[in-house]
Design brief:
InterPro entries: NA-bd_OB-fold. This protein is mainly beta. The chain has a domain of 48 residues. The protein has a two-stranded antiparallel ribbon with strand order 1-2. The longest helix has 9 residues. The radius of gyration is 16 Å and the shape is elongated.
Length: 74
Amino acid sequence: MLVCRLEGELGARALQQDLRPGDRVAVRGRLAVRYYRGDDGIPRSATLFHADGFGPFLGCRPSRPPGGPAGSCP
């Protein structure tokens, strides 16, 4: 589960739909890992998520990686 805050236009839409902090929604977007070197010269990474939209949370569908065990669902 990814916990995030809906801001800007998505935040305004969430308020219009009477969503409250802690409500579960399905979020559509892109996840990316960015690698960079800090001012101190130490390599770092950051995980960025850009949400394009959201909808009702319809439950959890655990994924099964190829040849691996089924994923978990909180």
